[in-house]
Specification:
With 488 residues, the chain is an alpha/beta fold. Helices cover 41% and strands 13% of the residues. It is built from 15 helices and twelve strands. The structure holds pyridoxal-5'-phosphate.
Length: 488
Amino acid sequence: MSEGRIVVDAARNPSLDPQDWDAFRRFAHELVDRMVDHVRDIGAGPVWRPLPDEVKARIATPAPAAPTSYQALREDLEALVLPYSAGNAHPRFWGWVQGSGTPGGALAEFVAAMLNSNCGGRDHGAIYLERAVVGWARDWFGFPPTAGGLLTSGSSMANLLSLAAARAHYGEEIRARGVSGRRLVAYASAEAHASLAKAMETLGLGREALRAIPVDENYRMRLEALATAIAEDRDSGFEPFAVVATAGTVNTGAFDDISGVADLCEREKIWLHVDGAFGSLVRLAPKLAGLADGIERADSLAFDFHKWLHVPYDAGCVLARDEQMLRAAFGGRPHYLASAGGLAGGEPWPSDLGLELSRGFRALKIWWTVKEQGVERLGAAIQRNCAQAGYLAERLGRNPRVKIAAPVALNIVCCRYVAPGLDGAALDRLNGAIVVALQQRGIAAPSTTRLGGRLCIRVCITNHRSRDADFDALAEAISEIGARLAAR
Ligand SMILES: *Cc1c(COP(=O)(O)O)cnc(C)c1O
């Protein structure tokens, strides 16, 4: 021992830590600087660039037998990784539903990785942070004190866990013996997210057991059609076990009438799950919060921190109005995980509330982002995105060839470029080609969807970096590219 340090014979006691900590520290500092610049300047580059074949080939090389130097790692990062991200951190990315991230959230992710916490359970700080952020969500959505939940990879997983909890609530014996002939059915609107059908497949119920209820002209689930479907199923010997209301559909941002669905579920004694992946977060934006009225009556809720709250991927959440409902579906631990107090305490373990045992420390980047920004600023960013959707729709509408394809209920604008003399199928191809051109030229990244069978350009604004000028640029580019392609 000298100066309080343990002197290690590195040759006889090797580890995977840096052999030269000072060199590692310099490398780490440089990398932080590089990434701060990257995010600060991201709007100056293209939104996306396709990977050249040569880059794909360089990425797909075999694992090295020997160590790679920091210098070579850094060169790989510059050549193979940094130029080719999907672009969702860019101010003109509006595809699918994706968050922009924040540099603060990324710093938290770094700290979490340095701690290397495993959040399946046990008694350590990370578990208490997870409970704290789940508690924040409970308050945001007006769930009762009995509520509990779990951080997940996203809403796909949260939807699966919720439907599994609903199923267990309906028949405890299902955990032991499987569904065994019971004909359990669930309901969601025809606009509901595809992860729900996957969840039904995974649960062994089959995707046909998820009844697709038609929507009205505002893309909201028709309540009378839902009531009829439930009655018909009961008459035919099916067991309705869950209704899913969507708070913010992925196509158009529509909100089902959650209160109306909740009344029906109460009468029928059916579990109400709300898929609020992004839309439920309007609860943080005072002018929009009313859209999600009734969400506090749900038995379970799925939502994402990584979409409209911009926590770095991945970070979703499942919330149940009674934590016991998740424990009833997933609880129970074998001897080697039993609690004898000490480090093995900290009941309940997150692994009792879901499928996974080993789990990362997602709570830190959520906790950090919400603390760093404050709830008001996060809510204002949501509100701003919806105002921007209104601005974009108005801006696009100045060109008589651009038709707004669905009511702009939230933050999503679906539009279609129409050129005289082209039939529906030709216009589908034209609009698809406009989106590809926008992406390939790195101008902007909207995505596509179909409404009423027709392909549209879909602009989903879950982006805190977008400015008015970005929407002007998009509207101009659609007009210019549309006219050029239509002339061919
Ligand atoms: C994004 C989304 C999902 C899936 O969530 P992931 O976090 O991508 O797994 C489910 N439902 C809706 C309405 C969504 O927008």
